[in-house]
Amino acid sequence: MACKKKPCTSADILTPEQKNILSAMAVTPSPMACKEIAQAAGLDNKLVSGKLPGLQTLGYVDSPARCRYAITDAGKKMAADI
Fold first, then answer.
1. Could you tell me the residue ranges of all domains in the chain?
2. b/e sequence 31-49, b meaning 16+ C-beta within 10 Å
3. pLDDT at site 13
């Protein structure tokens, strides 16, 4: 019997927490501190700080200043697809 799984999309590689972080960041035009992202996403600060490096590696989040994070155009596109 053939596998009938749906094809993988880029959003499938993200955890629910990463999706939540991107969604929260997508509605904020300026760079945010980790604590601000956590509040906006309704998540624990330590969880957010642990997820941000993975989002940076994927190119969805950038750090334009020390301890500040901004969503990239690719991140905005991903957030729109979630």
1. 14-81
2. bbebebbbebbebeeebbe
3. 84
Half-sphere exposure of 72 (CA within 13 A, CB side): 13
Indicate the pTM of the whole model. Answer: 0.84
Give the phi and the psi of residue 22 in degrees, each rounded to 5.
-60, -40
Cα angle for residues 12, 18, 20 (degrees, 5° grid)? 105
SS3 content of the chain, % helix, strand, coil (to 5): 55, 10, 35
Low-confidence ranges of the chain (pLDDT < 70): 1-12
Model confidence pLDDT, tens digit, residues 14-23: 999 999 999 9
Strand partners, 65: 68
Q: Span 14-81: which CATH code?
A: 1.10.10.10
